[in-house]
Amino acid sequence: MLLQVSHLDVTYHGKAEPTVHDVSFELERGQILAIVGESGSGKTTVIRAVLNCLPRGAGISGGKMSFEGKDLLSLSPGEWRSLRGSEISMIFQDSGNMMNPVHTIGKQYIEYIQTHSDVNRQEAYDLAIEKLTLMNLPNPENIMSSYTFELSGGMRQRVGIAMAITFQPKLLLADEPTSALDVTTQAQIVGELMFITRGSGASMIIVTHNIGVASYLSDRLLVMRQGKTVECGKTKDVIEHPQADYTKTLLASVPEIGGKRYA
Amino acid sequence: MPDPKESDVILRVEHMTKKFPLSGGRTLTACDDVSLRVRKGETVAIVGESGCGKTTLLKTIMNMQPPTSGRILLHEKDITNLTGEARRENCRHIQMVFQDPTSAFNPKMRIRDIVCEPLLNFGLLKRKDMAAKARELLAQVDLPADFAERYPHNMSGGQRQRVAVARALALEPEIIACDEATSALDVSVQDTIIRLLVRLQREKGITYLFICHDLALVSLFSHRIAVMYLGSIMEKLDGDRLEEARHPYTQALLKAVFSTDQEKNQKISILAGDIPSPLDIPSGCPFRNRCEHCRDMCEKKKPALRELAPNHSIACHYPLEIVTK
After folding, report:
1. Which pLDDT belongs to residue B2?
2. A154: closest chain B residue by CA
3. Which chain A residues have a beta carbon less than 8 Å from that of B268?
4. What distance in Å separates the CA atoms of residue B144 and residue A17, rounded to the nearest whole number?
5. What is the mean pLDDT of chain B?
6. pLDDT digits (tens, 9 = 90+) for B165-200
7. ipTM value of the model?
8. Degrees (nearest 5) of the Cα angle A135, A138, A139?
9. Which residues pair with residue A145 across a beta bridge?
């Protein structure tokens, strides 16, 4: 068992009721879990809790989380720092926003590598180039000397994924990684996420509102609504035989090519 | 098109080109020789990825910016270069619903004032009749009457989008242009908004111009689909026959849509490369550098939109052979 989350409660400051209540799931090595739900369902809060980077004023108010048998809730800030970015890393909706626009990508990438490992500049540069190449980015040297605004959305997202997989993390967390992208670019990025997780044996939790993407990528599916679990199980089972009424409604409203026309 | 009953065509875009001059003597071609016919009571969807010129096309039709060349005809009347009062009067016929219902309203106005504002602008409503009219408009979009006294921030995104539809309906326009009207909404909310739009169309015979990037969604309710890429229309076909598309780009878009049906997901295929910058459109066919069927001809000559079958035209030298069901 890689990650075990049981009865997780997250409460925002000043609220009596927890925003996320009693969410439990388990993740084996190499598995992909998708968390789907509509806006305000708490899906992003859940993966932020796993990385212990909840917004200011929010905190875990109940439940347990363990990663490779280690109790995550008892880690010191220093232990978190060594875990984050190397063992567990995150891919954001728009990786352009996580970077500083006034520094080149190369400068930030090298800084990130040197923070987490004991290598010199040249070794860090070579490692960065290797990861960018793995993400099918043309001219990685050119990317290293670019600023984020000079790249297209798809390229920025590839840079974000390259950075996230630099230290071959055991767990990747992806928060709406394709939602800001065009259809054809989305297909490219989803293909690459599939390739890197299957290739490296890493596990992934992907948060998305695109149920098509979730069912394509994931082994297990967690459906959330208003901070609670609606349904959780094997993706195939949940999609083909949804139990909860909410899941049925949700699946019925996903537009499909060749589906039932509105009349 | 052989048999579009000419009398049914209410809006025509003829050879519209829009270029934006940039610094350094460069020009950005947002729309290149776009022609479109819209028949009464139909939904015409314009789909494409970012930068394909779909919003520019809509803005030109809406008279928000003049085209570089070409004409826009509403009921055979040239509305391309209307100014002043004539332009304002024209707004009675075409109304718009925007992508983000939060920024489409003045946050300090009550819903009652928002939905009645177009009528007050045209002097079609007396202030004392506002309350009744607001109730009537809200009822059309399935919102309770007491919403009239609310402010936009007191409602959910889906409810706000309903208010946007109510405001667009106020003047009883012939055409409503929707610019990504559902892409900021959750799927279940999107579903209810589309149902509402389809019902209103049936009841009132409204024509929709629907700009969208979600091919699966538009295939479920539009009558005609125009697929755009880098400022040109690549293919025009009937909404319910989207799967018979023969342009390599349309097929690539179809194959990039993820489904909840694993069998369909088997067919996902990934189109390589990025969309070129609209500043740097390839010579010949705009799609040629990403097309796996590209031949010499595609580099030399830009394919013109031509008719393959009734209601199906395509801008490609070598259309794909698709087995029809």
Report:
1. 43
2. B274
3. 187, 191, 216
4. 29
5. 91
6. 999 999 999 999 999 999 888 999 999 999 999 999
7. 0.86
8. 120
9. none
- Residue B279 confidence (pLDDT): 86
B contact set with A (CB within 8 A) = 49-50, 157, 186-191, 194-195, 198, 213-217, 219-221, 240, 242-243, 252-262, 264-265, 268-272, 274-275
Task: Mark residue A127 as left, alpha or beta (left: phi above 0; alpha: psi -120 to 50; beta: remaining).
Answer: alpha
More confident site: A205 or B272:
A205
- Residue ranges and CATH numbers for the domains of chain B are 6-84+212-314 (3.40.50.300)
Mean pLDDT along residues B235-250: 94
Residues of A in contact with B49 (CB under 8 A): 182-185
- Per CB-CB distance under 8 Å, the chain B contacts of A209 are 186-187
Each domain of chain A, given as residue ranges in start order, spans: 30-54+79-252
Superfamily of chain region A30-54+79-252: P-loop containing nucleotide triphosphate hydrolases (3.40.50.300)
Q: Per residue in A241-261, is it b (16+ CB within 10 Å) or e — as a string?
A: ebeeebbeebbebbbbbbeee
Kind of pairing between the strands at B207-212 and B175-179: parallel
| Stated pTM of the model | 0.89
Percent of chain B as helix, strand, coil, to the nearest 5 = 35, 25, 40
Q: 3-state DSSP call for residue B193?
A: helix
Which residues in chain A have their CB less than 8 angstroms from residue B198's CB?
Answer: 262-263
Residue A204 tokens read as 């992934």
pLDDT over 80 (residue B253): yes
What is the 8-class DSSP label of residue B118? H
Nearest-CB residue to B216 (from A155, A257, A263): A257
